[in-house]
UniProtKB/TrEMBL annotation:
Organism: Evansella caseinilytica
Record-linked NCBIfam families: PRK07231.1
UniProt xrefs under InterPro entries: KR_dom, NAD(P)-bd_dom_sf, Sc_DH/Rdtase_CS, SDR_fam
Name of the protein described by the UniProt record: 2-deoxy-D-gluconate 3-dehydrogenase
Organism domain of life: Bacteria
One Pfam family from the record: adh_short_C2
Transmembrane segments: none
GO molecular function: oxidoreductase activity, acting on the CH-OH group of donors, NAD or NADP as acceptor
Nucleotide-binding listed as a keyword: no
Family in the record: Belongs to the short-chain dehydrogenases/reductases (SDR) family.
């Protein structure tokens, strides 16, 4: 019984940003639970695909640069045609730009808002069309601690991730009665390429570590459990929730 609650056999999960970091671990985690995987990525890097295929499930790469909103708009019908379903969507891909607010370039603002918010919105909307129609689906957005807090030197990222948290609740309100779960995962400080600037700064890195109750930075592997839970029947009555996977940061 416990196993079947988390079983994703024959489901099709669409994951953005699966080439590395949190998205790669989530894609592999969903595949370990039995899901077939559609990787939406801008490069043809097939490392994650190869790892997933070793698990005995299907994995296809769909070329999709999240800057290209026309492509973002039409990619899910392609997944549907090739893999037969769109059951789970994980909006994971994201970018970071750090500058003091007075110097923040408008081009960086536009880029961050496009990739981290508008592309997420469009994929939610397109998945929502398919999922509300089939009366079943799971959408998992990746929010951030700055969905709650302000951060420093990252105003565009904070604005986008705050909005991703609110969008998650707005869509859950519309779609929960139609069989579609929309939730978010809130990562704490995770040791990925996105945080190289923080990890390489001995002062910031120590300050951050001292504030994490778990006593360590997070690892992409820490996200498999939360993603499987929100993608599976185990979370069928969970809607509009932001699930922190942060080593206790927000509780402190
Ligand atoms: P990461 O290691 O930098 O990986 C980012 C992923 O996004 C890569 O797969 C990258 O693909 C993809 N991506 C970036 N721009 C793209 C575009 N225009 N089109 C398609 N794909 C694109 O980041 P991460 O730390 O794993 O972060 C994953 C998610 O968690 C993001 O939404 C991030 O904001 C969020 N998050 C991370 C942390 C943290 O501490 N790391 C904390 C809170 C929230 P390429 O290989 O093509 O670059």
């Amino acid at each position: 019984m416990m196993v079947s609650l988390f079983d994703l056999k024959d489901r099709v999960a669409v994951v953005t940003g699966g080439t590395r970091g949190i998205g790669k671990a989530i894609a592999i985690g969903l595949a370990e639970s039995g899901a077939n995987i559609a990787l939406l990525q801008r490069s043809d890097n097939a490392e994650t695909k190869r790892e997933i295929e070793k698990l005995g499930v299907t994995c296809e790469i769909f070329q999709c640069d999240l800057h290209d909103l026309d492509r973002v708009r039409n990619v899910l019908p392609e997944v549907l045609e090739k893999l037969g379903a769109v059951d789970i969507l994980v909006n994971n891909a994201g970018i970071q730009r750090r500058h003091p607010a007075v110097e923040f370039p408008e081009s960086d603002w536009d880029e961050v808002l496009k990739v981290n918010l508008k592309a997420v919105w469009i994929l939610c909307q397109e998945a929502g069309k398919i999922m509300t129609d089939q009366k079943k689906g799971k959408i998992i957005n990746i929010a951030s601690l700055v969905s709650y807090q302000g951060g420093i030197f990252v105003p565009a990222y904070t604005a986008a991730k705050g909005a991703v948290g609110q969008l998650t609740k707005a869509l859950a309100n519309e779609w929960s009665s139609l069989g579609v779960n929309v939730n978010a995962i809130v990562p704490g400080y995770i040791a990925t390429e996105m945080n190289t600037a923080l990890i390489d700064d001995p002062v910031r890195s120590r300050q951050i570590l001292e504030r994490i109750p778990a006593g360590r930075w997070g690892d992409p592997e820490d996200f498999k459990g939360a993603a499987i839970y929100l993608a599976s029947a185990a979370s069928d009555y969970v809607h509009g929730h932001l699930l922190a996977v942060d080593g206790g940061w927000l509780g402190r």
